[in-house]
Amino acid sequence: MRTSFFLAPFLSLLGLISARSSTGDKVLVVLEPSVQKDDYSKFWKSLKDRGFELTFKEPKDKDAELVKYGELNYDHLIMYAPGAKSFSPSLSPKSILNAQFSGLNTLYFLSPDLTESNRELLREYDIEFIEPSLTLLDAFNHPPESSISTVLLPPTSSIPDSNGEIISASTSSGGPIVYSSGTVHTTGQNPFLVDILHATKSSYIGKDKASKGEDNDNASKSKEPILNGKKATLVSALQSRDNVRIGFVGTGQLIKDDWWGTEVATKEGKSIKTGNADFISDFSKWIFQETGVVKIIDSTHYRKGETEPRELYTKKDEITYSLTLAKHYTTSNGTSAWGPFEVDDLQLDFTMLDPHVRTALTQDKSTSAEIGTNYKAKFIAPDRHGVFKFVVGYWRTGWSYIQSSTTASVVPLRHDEYPRFITGAWPYYIGACSTSVTFLIFCALWVSLGETDKDRKGKKKAE
Amino acid sequence: MAPKAKSPLATPSKSSQVTVPLPRKASEDVLSKAQDTDTEPLPSGTSTPKSNSRKLAYPLPTHISPTTINNTESLLRFVILALICGAAIGSRLFAVIRFESVIHEFDPWFNFRASKVLVNEGFYEFWNWFDPTAWYPLGRTVGTTLYPGLMVTSGLIWHFLRLINMPVDIRNVCVMLAPGFAGLTAWATYLFTTEMSTPSAGLLAAAFIGIAPGYISRSVAGSYDNEAIAIFILMACFYSWIKAMKTGSALWGMLTALFYGWMVAAWGGYVFITNMIPLHAFVLILMGRFNNRLYTAYSSWYVIGTISSMQVPFVEFLPIRTSEHMAALGVFGLLQLIAFVEIVRRLVPGKQFQLLLRAFVVLVFVVSFAALVVLTFSGWIAPFAGRFYSLWDTGYAKVHMPIIASVSEHQPTAWPSFFFDLEMLIFFFPAGVFWCFKELRDEQIFIIIYATLSAYFAGVMVRLMLVITPVVCVASAISFSKLLEAYIDPIIPESEEELEEATAHQPMSKAKAKKIAAAAQQNKSEFNFTGILGGKGEKGIFGLDTRFAVVSTLSLFLFIFVYHCTWVTQSAYSSPSVVLASRNQDGSQNIIDDFREAYYWIRQNTEKDAVIMSWWDYGYQIAGMADRPTLVDNNTWNNTHIATVGKAMSSNEDVAYPILRKHDVEYVLVIFGGLLGYSGDDINKFLWMVRIAQGEWPDEVQEVNYFTQRGEYAVDERATPTMKNSLMYKMSYYRFPELFGGHPAQDRVRGQTIPSAPIQLDTLDEAFTSENWIVRIYQVKKEDPIGRELSAVSSFESGKKLKRSASSDTAAGVKKGRPSM
Q1: Would you give the DSSP letter of residue B631?
Q2: Residue partners of B351: CB distance under 8 A and separation at least 6
Q3: Residues of chain B with pLDDT under 70
Q4: Which of A16, A32, B505, B662 is most buried, by the most CB atoms less than 10 A from its CB?
Q5: How does the record classify its membrane topology (chain B) (predicted)?
């Protein structure tokens, strides 16, 4: 705990020379051959502007190694290969998952023509897709000149309110997001999954007649549940237990230059700036650990009147637990830094199998941390001995999961710590003393008044 | 060594010292019958000339003076006793010589660990010791939940040895403590038996207890358990009680109390003394033998003993709050009443008044007994503990407390084990009790009560064989020495007339002689059936051949006894059980050291605070040898916690995994004997885990599900799905068939063939398997970082592709609850 506290300034120094992401700046971009890199130049440029180093590879490139000698080669991965049928071993589903377990943030760009091997991988995240070659259609919300597969999504109704930390407010109230020939998925019961963008009420799933010119009755025959509105997820994200972030975007068209910072005509005939650039910037910032990142700087616990943590506390001790949290942010000159993180719903559990104490961690304004915000909780240790844990678990959408667990034991009073000469024991003290005194008096009387040898002899004679 | 102790009895040169007591005894018997008081012992010198006048079966040396005889006797006794102590210690060293100086079994490992804390950190730290690694996460306040007597004893010895500049490792003190105290036990038994009978019986008893397997089973070197010192304290306590009761000395009463206090500090079996002494006193009162000596002895024992027992933190107020101790309190009260009444009776004449007083005693007794019952039912006095009930109803524990019944040493004793542990003593034992009945002095009543009680208890629990062993040794030594005395005695009986003449010649008053004659007359009519030992001259032993036949037979018995004891000790009771031994085909010894191998693996390869889950049998060993936290251990104080482990072991992985995670378990350890044929493994204990778990969760774990339809406990193809899916089964047989390379995988303990279908473990990784597969350790997997079920993870790892997503069958959009982190 203390080492990280002292290291923190150095870490922030490191931030000066690296990207604004809190984890690193090396990005591997895997593009399938059919994707023209230049069609997305504005997106690449925006990433480079944010300080990332991009490396472009193809799915079958042998040298696209994610992990080398047990260390991650790249910090982030952009996977734009929905049509790839096979991958080089280093990009196989297993190695990608393993790399993600060791910290690789990933952004998947998908398409309606998702191959089965890709679907299998994505099912591991508990994401299920509609059948191939079906796309999201909307006959009401599309640019007049485009086909109905180019859906315009008004952010106010398509982005759930709970994503405030991921998608900024300006984006949520900004221009429509152009979702062109994209697929639809459902997020399962996996609690780590978050819906970022969903379809409008008027949208539906089907084959784009305009582009393919085929008969559209596949959709009705499909056994898939009919998806629309909130259930039809278009963009979703997963934050793993270790705070690794993985994003799923239903179509790569979202980052195409055509919709990046351009204007689009609505059906009312107005021309509005598209929200694609803002949306993807916000989303990729979150995925690449630039926003919504919180870390524990320091946590400690001590008894009243002390400052150092103990391994053993006595029952009914007054224990103080303090925690310092810091939020990652980007300074105005584009560097990485850690600043205060202020919330009012943090809580601490003092747990042995079940929480014995659950109390609020409140901001401690009295001491100012070098970095971040101090939180503090004071409580009386339970009247129960055992191995307890100070557990902090803060789980909010869009923020890193804050988990901390520190072990300390609560022990009974030592033999000499019990109160002495308590009032309730007076009867016993008096009893003991009076018995002793009486015994002494009795002995004295016996010795002085008892029969002498003479008496005894006389008695015997008398008998 | 041991035969030496007895050989003197058979040689003619020493026979003189044995023959001396018999004539004296015979006359004493008559005297005591006649006078009903203690006889003043006749000087032993008088009997020698008397016997000279008699016909002797073989010549005795005549020119030795009585003082020489006395001196030789005491020197011989001392030497013999010293040799017996040596034999007692020596026969317990098999374990050290065969294996090494190592702590044995399970409980001793805890005692050893506690002793180390005591020695290294001092007494106060030991007293306040809280062990966070035991019963994780509940912890154990060790200092106040153990009997510290054993550790304090060895700690004192250790300090003493250092004081005299003999720095000895505490481990060696612990290993050698039991043999050392066994030597002391022999000495205490000698003293005890001498009080009951003669010194020669005492020597025999000392020799018996020194090598009786029933006691050796608990006191070989390395068996560092409470019983190691408890039997010595028991005998010393009983000896000083007999002494106190006989002499009426408060000093001996206090000594009894101090030994009692030591016993309370050392062993939970002290309750036996707590009830034995009051019972003895109570029986004496009922027999009308109340006297001031009994009063002084009992009162001083009870008061000082109770106070000293209350100093033990673990006992504290139990002596006044539990039913087990109420008999002692009741008898104490009764004695006060009787003493009071006696005083009043002496001072106040009048027969009616006396009657009234007696009625008063009975009334007070009844009223206070009723009060006791009321207090018990109202909860002020704790009723008897469960273990106590299981002494009366052997089926009680199995139904109500499977945790107690699951311990093998709590099972009822099998008949052969009486012979195995006591050999010929078990046949001489009733004869000795008979002899006690015959004389029925106060102290012999003690033997009778002790014999009756312990004979019952030993039949109920294997463990209590230990309690019966001392009394068996004492009683059979009495009968044995009586036999030997009768047959070695060189006096050839005279006719009745001669006998009467001889008694008449003795210098004594006429009245006394008359009384004796009358008593002798009475004896004749009373004891016609008692034969040679009836104390009647005309039915003694006449020829030398009879003597030779019987004495040589008895000597043969003794030799066989020694042979048997040595054989049992070396073959059955000298295995440390942490190290196993087997014989190779060429007869050489093969040491199987899997336990220590595994425990050291844990010690070297896991985090210091990694929690290990195993069945409770191995808790102390893991704590002692691997130094890691355990969920449950041999101090079975929390049934629920043990049942939790039982449930985890007997459930399938889906049920077990949350339990493991909730308790922060990182490694699971199982003992598997299938490869080697080690029958004490977890699969054989498995049904107890199921039963204990069922006791807490009758809906979730059911014993029936682990038996085949035909009621068999099978692990092969016939095993039920519940059995096959249980964590214990999976962990035991994981990858086991692979070992046989296609051949049928044979479980050598159960004699069954394990199905060759591979067992899949989703939530555990095999971390370590010892050389002979006895110990298998599994690491608990962490939850999947991206929220998959662990079964899904392992099927993904094995290359299976998902055709549908995990929650595609259920309603979409409903998120599961927040996962535990």
Answers
A1: S
A2: none
A3: 1-54, 383-388, 390, 394, 397-398, 494-539, 806-821
A4: A32
A5: Multi-pass membrane protein
**Secondary structure class of B707 (helix, strand, coil):** coil
Q: What is the total residue count of chain B?
A: 821
Chain A / chain B CB contacts < 8 angstroms: 124
Q: Residue B441 corresponds to which tokens in the numbers above?
A: 């002095």
Residue B818 is nearest to which of A191, A238, A353, comparing CB atoms?
A: A191
**Paired strand residues for A281:** none
Asked if A23-287 and A294-411 have one fold, the answer is no
Using CA atoms, how far apart are residues A301 and A320, in angstroms rounded to an integer? Answer: 6
Q: Could you give the ipTM of this predicted complex?
A: 0.83
Task: Give the phi and the psi of residue B347 in degrees, each rounded to 5.
Answer: -85, -35
Phi, psi dihedrals of residue A354, rounded to the nearest 5°: -120, 155
State the Cα–Cα distance between residues B220 and B214, nearest whole angstrom.
Answer: 11
Domain spans of chain A, in order of start? 23-287, 294-411, 425-462
Within the 403-422 window of chain A, which residues sit less than 8 Å (CB to CB) from chain B?
Answer: 403, 407, 409, 411-412, 414-415
Q: Is A54 exposed, middle or buried (0-12, 13-18, 19+ CB in 10 A)?
A: middle
pLDDT digits (tens, 9 = 90+) for B610-667: 999 999 889 899 998 989 999 998 887 888 899 999 999 999 888 999 999 999 999 9
Query: Is the distance from CB of A22 to CB of A237 less than 8 angstroms?
Result: no
> Which runs of E-coded beta strand occur in B67-151?
130-131, 140-141
Does the pTM surpass 0.90? The reply is: no
Give kind and range of the element (H or E) at residue A249: strand A245-249
User: Is A95:A149 a contact under the CB 8 Å cutoff?
Assistant: no
Which pLDDT score, from 0 to 100, does residue B746 have?
Answer: 86
Cβ distance of A128 and B808 shorter than 8 Å: yes
CB-nearest to A238 from B783, B786, B819 is B786
Residue A167 and residue A169: Cα distance in Å, rounded?
7
Q: Where do the domains of chain B lie?
A: 2-71+491-571, 91-385, 599-797
Q: What's the CATH class of domain B599-797?
A: alpha beta
State the DSSP H helix or E strand holding residue B662, giving kind and residue range, or none if neither.
helix B653-662
pLDDT mean across residues, chain A = 83
Q: Does A312 touch chain B (CB under 8 A)?
A: yes
pLDDT score for B821: 47
Please judge whether B663 and A353 are an interchain contact, meaning their C-beta atoms are less than 8 angstroms apart: yes
Fold of A23-287: Rossmann fold (3.40.50)
Q: Which two tokens stand for residue A354?
A: 């079940």
Q: Among B128, B783, B810, select the one facing A241 at the smallest CB separation.
A: B783
The predicted pLDDT at position B242 comes to: 93
